[in-house]
Amino acid sequence: MDMKYILRKKRDGEELSEEEIKFFIKGVSNGTIHEAQIGAMLMAIFIKGMTQQECVTLTKEMVFSGDTMQWPAKFRGSLVDKHSTGGVGDKVSIPLAPALAACGLKVPMLTGRCLSFTGGTLDKLESIPGFRISLTDTEMQSCLEEVGCFMMGTTERICPADKVLYKIRDLTSTVDYYNLIASSILSKKASEGIDYLIMDLKVGSATFMKDVESARVLAHQKINLSKLLGFKTRILLTRHETPLGRCVGNSLEIFESIEILRGKNVPLIKDLILHIGGHALHLSGKTSSVEEGELKMREVLENGKALECFKNMLIKQGVSEEVSHQLCFGDTRSALPQAKYQTRILAQNTGWINRIEAFPIGKVCYELGKTNENSSDTLNRSTGVELLKTVDEFVEINEPWILVHHSEEQLNEDHINALKASITISSVRIEIENQLIEVIGEDS
Fold first, then answer.
1. Taken in order 284, 286, 289, 290, is the CA torsion positive or negative?
2. Is 116 a catalytic residue?
3. 216 is catalytic
4. Catalytic residue among 188, 239, 405, 415
5. H helices then E strands: how many in the chain?
6. Which of 223, 329, 392, 398 would bridge 441 by S-S if both were Cys, CB 3.0 to 4.6 A apart?
7. 435 and 271 in contact (C-beta within 8 Å)?
8. Active site residue: 162, 187, 239, 389, which one?
9. In which pathway does it act (predicted)?
10. Catalytic option among 10, 60, 83, 113
11. For the chain, how big is the Rg over CA atoms in Å?
12. Catalytic residue at 162?
C-alpha cells in the first residue's frame, strides 16, 4: 500500500477504507511512515474532516496499536477515569483521583502533557521530586490494590500510535479537530480497561470549543464511540472563561491541589471536583444520586482520607516518605520548585472583578515556563501566576491582584501588559454564570 496515494485521497476529501487507516496507524506505531507524512495526514484530516466510520476505525486501530490494561475480576464495576479537554489552571485530576479512591473506586489514570497553552497533568506531577510517571504492570496492579489510584503517562506499549500523533498534532496546529480529539482521548481510555468515564468538556473563550452547540455534537460523538469501545461515558459541559482556582503553573498547581486535599475551598475548582466526583460515583452505581456522590466527595476531602490516599500514591510512585509527608502535612511550597523572582501587579481601578480572561494568562504562563535552548528540560516548572484576587471579589486601586513567579530578573513588558489587560473591574457587581452548563449521556 502506498502512503502517498492515501495522503492524496484524504487531501481530496475522499473517505479512507478500513485497510488504509490500519496501514497508516501501523506505520505510525512502527516508525515506517515519515513524520512529514504523518503531519500531512493530520492536516488533511483537519481540513477535510472524517466520517463517523473513519473515526471509529482510527480509534480502534489506535487501541490495537498497543496493549490493553488487564484487571482482576474483583475490580470490575469500580474502574473509572476522568478526562478534561483542558483549561487554564485545570488541576482537577490531581485531587480528584485520590478522592475517588477514598470513596472506594479504582482509578487507573493515564494522562498527558501540555497541548498548546493549557498545562498538562504530567508536567504538573513532574514538579514533585521523585515522582515516576512510568509504572510496570505489577506496580500498576499494586497501586490499585493498595491505594486505589495511580496517575501516569502512556507507555511504549499502551497506545503507541497516539503518543506519536499527540506530539505531531501539537507541532502542526491540528490539536483542536474534534474527531482527532475524540480518537486520542477514547483510545487511551479504552486501553485502561475502565468501566466508566466522566468527561469535562470545556466551552468558552479559553478553550478550543467556543460554543455550546458544537460541544454537544462532540459530546454525543464521544458517547457513541465509547459505547463501541465497551465503556459508559457521561459528559459535563462546563464554562471556561476564567482560570480554574487561584494558581496557574506546574508546581503552583500542585501546591493548590494539595490545599484542596487539605479541605480548603478554592474558587471555581472545588465545586467542579465535587460535581465530577459526584457523577463518577453515581454513574458507577456507588451512590443513588449525584447529590449523594457530591456529599461523599466533600466528606473525604474534608476528613483527610483523600489526602492520605494522595500521600500513599506519591510513595508508591517513587516519592520518598519524607518528601510525601512534607508535601501533604508540612510546608508544601518548600518541597516544590520555586521561581527565583516574584512580581506583583497592581489593580488600576477600585471595584468588583467581573472578569479575568484565562486565555492571555495561559499564554503568559506557557511562555514563562519555557527554558533556554541549552537546558536538558523543556519546561521550567517553578513559574506561573497566583491570583491574589479573582472573579466576584472586590479590589482597591493599587492593591496587588496577581503575583507572577518568574525565572528572569526582569519580567517581560508584553507579559505585564497582557496580564493587566486580562482583568475587568467595575463599580457594579454582576452575577457570575453557572460553571456547569449541562450533563449529557448515560441517563445523566
1. negative
2. no
3. no
4. 188
5. 17, 13
6. 223
7. yes
8. 162
9. Pyrimidine metabolism; dTMP biosynthesis via salvage pathway; dTMP from thymine: step 1/2
10. 83
11. 22
12. yes
d(CA 36, CA 20): 18
**Is 296 one of the annotated active-site residues of the chain?**
no
Which position among 91, 169, 234, 405 bears the catalytic label? 169
User: Are the CB atoms for 239 and 433 separated by under 8 Å?
Assistant: yes
Closest CA to 192 of 236, 220, 153: 153
Lowest mean per-residue pLDDT among 19-28, 167-176, 374-383: 374-383
Instruction: Please choose, from the candidates 203, 242, 259, the residue with its C-alpha nearest in 3D space to the C-alpha of residue 387.
Output: 242
- Domain 73-330 classification at class level: alpha beta
Query: Confidence class of residue 374 from pLDDT cuts 50, 70 and 90?
Result: very low
* Catalytic entry in 65, 84, 127, 184: 184
Amino acid letter for position 138: T
Check if the beta carbon of residue 216 is closer than 8 Å to that of residue 237.
Answer: yes
Structure confidence at residue 444 as a pLDDT band (50, 70, 90)? low
Give 256-269 pLDDT, tens digit per residue.
Answer: 999 999 999 998 89
Report which of 163, 138, 168 is spatially closest to residue 65, judged by C-alpha positions: 163
Which pLDDT belongs to residue 372? Answer: 56
Inter-residue contact 105 to 231 (CB < 8 Å): no
**Going along 7-139, which residue ranges are E strands?**
80-84, 107-110
239 catalytic? Reply is no
Cell numbers standing for residue 429: 457587581
Q: What is the pTM of this model?
A: 0.90
Per-domain boundaries in the chain? 3-49, 73-330, 338-426
**3-49: CATH topology:** 1.20.970
CA distance 381 to 420: 23
**What average pLDDT does range 346-375 have in this prediction?**
88
What is the CATH class of 338-426? alpha beta
Comparing CA positions, the residue from 164, 171, 219, 163 lying closest to residue 43 is: 171
